[in-house]
């Protein structure tokens, strides 16, 4: 389990990935984005997660460059993730999309490249492209996002390279225990997007009680729960005090009763699309 902001999990291909990072979903291009990414790196974050569809890879790249310079770090010190969008899920299209993402980010490689959604009939061709990128050492690791068990089973029937990551919606209202167990069995690391349920959980009485017990915020309780469940997490914020607060989750531990209470909040409720019923 992670005990420090810069602690890492070793993925099944040997690459080390930080347990904790910054997500930038719905953060528009501009100074706020650049400053958020820079601030996160300066404050100790070592993982940044973006995607082609977010439309903000250029700003993320600029924030990375400024953050590395201010923190006195090199490119190898951080872990950068992006994702191929649904419209580019073909073999040649995915290869081209990867190069476009690199160009926008201003990077020579990505640490992790993901298929964003399991579009039926398209994700296997895209995965072949990710395998090519990985085998040619253009990306350090490849994975998927929003894949359910049947998607993973289908994908792994025909692969030379197994996904290292499955990034999914994950929070106390959507604990996805069966999917998590499947991923653990197959050595695929689960990663949480929308870990704070887009703010919907911040007024929950059970979480507020646990937060008061530990002298922490509700957000910190949820993020700590992620980590103790062995789930990589990437909360989003553009405000410096929130970026710092979100990462201040390594000086306490939830006990078994806390974890049980949080697990009990599950309702299999999504705030994002259902991967099996999503109009792509």
Describe the protein's architecture and organization:
The protein has 280 residues and is α/β, with parallel strands linked by helices. It has one domain (8-263): TIM Barrel. The protein is 39% helix and 13% strand. The strands form two sheets. Strands 3-4-5-6-7-8-9-10 form an eight-stranded parallel β-sheet. Strands 1-2 form a two-stranded antiparallel sheet. Helix 1 (31-42) packs parallel to helix 2 (57-71) and helix 7 crosses helix 8 (218-228). The N and C termini lie far apart (36 Å). The model has no long low-confidence stretch (mean pLDDT 96). The active site is at residue 54. Keywords: Oxidoreductase. It comes from Priestia megaterium (strain ATCC 14581 / DSM 32 / CCUG 1817 / JCM 2506 / NBRC 15308 / NCIMB 9376 / NCTC 10342 / NRRL B-14308 / VKM B-512 / Ford 19) (Bacillus megaterium).
Strand content: 5-15%
User: What structural category arises from helix and sheet content?
Assistant: alpha/beta
CATH T-level topology: TIM Barrel
Provide the CATH top-level class.
Alpha Beta
Shape: globular
Mean pLDDT: 96
Would you count the extended β strands for me? 10
Q: Which CATH-level-2 architecture? A: Alpha-Beta Barrel
Strand order, main sheet: write it out. Answer: 3-4-5-6-7-8-9-10
Biggest sheet features:
8 strands, parallel
Counting DSSP H or I runs of 4 or more residues, the number of helices is 10
Which sequence of SSEs, written as H and E, runs from N to C?
A: EEEHEHEHEHEHEHEHHEHH
What Rg, in angstroms, do the CA atoms define? Answer: 18 Å
Helix content: 25-40%
CATH superfamily: NADP-dependent oxidoreductase domain
The termini sit apart by 36 Å
Whole-number total of structural domains: 1
């Amino acid at each position: 389990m992670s005990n420090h902001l810069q602690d890492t999990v070793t993925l099944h291909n040997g690459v080390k990935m930080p347990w904790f990072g910054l997500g930038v979903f719905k953060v528009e291009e501009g100074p706020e984005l650049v400053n958020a990414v820079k601030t996160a790196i300066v404050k100790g974050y070592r993982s940044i997660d973006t995607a082609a569809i977010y439309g903000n890879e250029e700003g993320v790249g600029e924030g990375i460059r400024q953050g590395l310079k201010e923190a006195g770090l090199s490119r190898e010190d951080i872990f950068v993730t992006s994702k191929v969008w649904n419209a580019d899920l073909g073999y040649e299209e995915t290869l081209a999309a990867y190069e476009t993402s690199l160009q926008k980010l201003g990077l020579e490689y990505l640490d992790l490249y993901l298929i964003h959604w399991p579009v039926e009939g398209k994700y296997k061709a895209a995965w072949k492209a990710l395998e090519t990128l990985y085998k040619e050492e253009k990306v350090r690791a490849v994975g998927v996002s929003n894949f359910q068990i049947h998607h993973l089973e289908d994908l792994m029937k025909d692969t030379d390279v197994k996904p290292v990551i499955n990034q999914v919606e994950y929070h106390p209202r959507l604990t996805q225990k069966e999917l998590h167990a499947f991923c653990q069995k197959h050595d695929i690391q689960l990663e949480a997007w929308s870990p704070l349920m887009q703010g919907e959980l911040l007024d929950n009485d059970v979480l507020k009680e646990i937060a008061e017990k530990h002298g922490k915020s509700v957000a910190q309780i949820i993020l700590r729960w992620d980590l103790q469940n062995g789930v990589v997490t990437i909360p989003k914020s553009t405000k410096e005090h929130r970026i710092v607060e979100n990462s201040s989750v390594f000086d306490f531990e939830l006990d078994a009763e806390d974890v049980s209470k949080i697990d009990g909040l599950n309702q299999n409720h999504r705030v994002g699309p259902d991967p099996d019923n999503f109009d792509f």
